[in-house]
Structure formats: structure tokens, C-alpha cells
Amino acid sequence: MATAQVGVVIVGAGPAGLVLGSLLLDRGVDCVILERRSREAVEGRARAGFLAAHSVRVLTENGLGGGLLAHGTTHTACLFRSDRGEFTLDYGKSGQGEAHTVYPQQELVRDLVAEYLRRGGEIRFGAEAAEITEGAVRVRGGTRVTGRYIAGCDGHRGIGRAALTAHGTRTARWDHGVSWLAVLAAAPPSLDAVGYALHERGFAGHMARSASVTRYYLQCPRGTDPAEWSEERIWAELAIRMRTDEFGPLRRGAVLEKAVVDLRSDVLERPGAGRLWLAGDAVGLISPTAAKGANLAVLQAELLARALEGALARGGGASLARYPADCLPRLWRAHEFSHWMSGLLHGPAGDDDKARYGRELQYARLESLRTSRAHQDFFAENYVGI
Ligand code: RFL
Q: pTM of this prediction?
């Protein structure tokens, strides 16, 4: 059974789909969002937390930033630790002088769902898109939803991307060969800054999420089962890699979640064709080293909203044809920086000549970041900007 045709059928109620939906409604484009999970599941999924200045601008200028302005906190510094010492890089004082706003992704998603519904939008939770055909989405269970355009905002493993690659769209891909145990702890942050610790046992990271929740990362071997990491072991390993003997203890708390993330990146050569266009992780997966994923989702939603509005208002694809050129260079810039960060944070394993050489390069890069204003400006501009 098909329902009436809407302007845009959006698949996925993550940051990309929800921002796109609200922007389209604002521009007078009717749309419907299909989301396979329940509202509770979507609003409860803790992932990102660092919103770049551009994302904050897009959200606030479009009436989507109430929650983050009221409850987010500003971050302008990150700290690097290694066996050569510690230093803080105040990126708010370098580059364009911009800041991150720390606001948990699940809270942003909650705000976005509420605002989209308030604007009169429709979300069908528990509606899994099973197939995308020319201008129509078949929902598992039988219904067909038709739109003049389909927006695949269904993440990296979604069917939007699969529909494009099935028709020959190629992917550029990189495996960083590194995995992280991503831990969410009911513990207040232990540092005022984002913490990056380089250690011969592997990288460890600290990122505030709220006054009572902190995300930690521990580099671990590929194929690690999170069950191997007890709460005890996590805190003991964090203490070693973050060198708490030297720099002071971490504030501990219950581990709320632990998952292994393989650091992989990829980008589609084209983010859409015909009547199917993608935004967010569906276009490209980016390794979490520089906390770019959710920010790229917001950026692409903004660009795609403009392109779809133009296509619907004026007919045909001139504005959609510009979407790849607007979106891909920015995406690649973020990937280049994330890749650079990955090299900075992950030293080679072992102690042979090659590993020692690689580690010294890592230290030289850190030392340059510590002392060179030009290098700090480069870092700041890319870390907080898009
Ligand atoms: P999402 O958030 O994955 O949302 C996609 C939605 O589509 C739904 N879906 C379907 N719905 C209907 N039918 C289908 N067939 C469907 N298939 C999928 C899914 O249920 C889901 O609700 O993609 P989106 O919107 O593109 O947003 C991307 C961001 O969520 C992601 O890039 C970030 O979370 C990445 N990320 C971070 N990004 C940052 O900018 N800053 C950070 O600090 C940061 N930390 C992180 C992160 C990702 C992490 N993980 C789990 C990979 C930390 C972690 C641990």
C-alpha cells in the first residue's frame, strides 16, 4: 500500500536526518522520516559530544540550538601527555579562536526530535526501510512511502549507501589498523581539557561529556572482545597510560557502556544520484580521532537541505548537481586532519628500528605542536573548524 507522495522521504533519525527534516520544514518542503528504532532507543544512544563552531552556528541560526546553548559547556583546550611530559594546547587562542560546545549527542537528538515534531513533521519510529527504488521506500511489513526525493541519512551501514554502491558508486577507504575500546563512565571529567595520552602500551583518551559523565578511549588490539575488559582493568589501564602517578588521579565511576570501535574511514565518490541523495555517515565514515562525525552530519544536512529545496522549487537538478562539489571537499579536509591525528596519537608497536623511528617522529610532531605557533594555528583551525 502506498501513501501520498511527499517532497522528501528521509531514512534515518540520527543527527543528519533530523537536522535535514527541520530545515526542509522551515523551507516549506513536506517530508517524512522513517526510523527503524524506537524513539527511546534513538534518544538514548550516547555517541558524540563535541560540536564544532560551525555546527553550533547552523543549529542555533535555525532554531535548533536551545538545549545546547542552555546546557552545553564550552571547551577550548586539549592536553597531550607522553613520557616526555605534558602540555596544554589552548586552541581557542589559536587559529580562528573558535571553541567546541560539549553537549551529548543523545541530548541533541532528543532536542531535534522534539523540534521537528513541533514544526509539524512526521517521524515513523519502528519503520525500517527495506528497499529504496526510484522515488519510493518500501518499509519492512509492506507499506511504500513515495517522495520526489529520498534522503538516505541512515548511517554507514544503511541501505541508502548500499543502493548507490549497487549502482556502481565507488568508495575510497582506509583502515587505520587500530581499534579503540570506547568507554562511557559515570564519572566527572578528570581534566579541564580533552586529554590525549601517548603511551608505549597504546593511546588513551579522555573527553568530557557532562558534569557527571566522561568518555574514555583505550587503544586495543583488533578483534578485542569488550567483555575482556572488566571495570577494574579499564581503570587500571587508564591510570597507567594517563600516567596518574605523575599527573594525578582520575575520578572513577561505574562503567555505563563499553564497545570496540575499529578505526576506519571511507568516503563515497558521489553522495547521491537521480532521486536518492545521502548525508552524514551514509556518505562517509570518519575515524573518531578528531571528533568530526556528528559535525559532518550537521554540515551535510545543511547543504543537502539547500540543494533539495532548490531542486523542488525550480525543478531539475542544478542545485543538486552542486551538492557533491559543496560537500566533498569539506569532507576530505576533515578526513585529512583526522588521518593526521591518527598518526599523531598511535605510535608503532614493538621496539625494532622502524618502531623507534616512528615513535621519534611522533615525539617530534608533538614537540612542534607544543612550541610552534604556526603548527598550533594549523591544529586549531582544523580541529575545531570544518
Ligand atoms: P546515525 O547517527 O548513525 O543515524 C542513522 C539513523 O538511521 C537509522 N537507520 C534506519 N532507519 C530506517 N531504516 C533503515 N534501514 C535504517 N538503517 C539505519 C538508525 O537507526 C539511526 O537512527 O547517522 P548520522 O545521522 O549520519 O550521524 C552520524 C553521527 O551519529 C556519528 O558520525 C557520530 O556519532 C560519530 N562520533 C562522534 N562525532 C563527533 O562529531 N564528535 C564526537 O565526539 C564523536 N564521538 C562518535 C563518537 C561515534 C562513536 N561510535 C559509536 C562510532 C564516539 C563514538 C564511540
A: 0.95
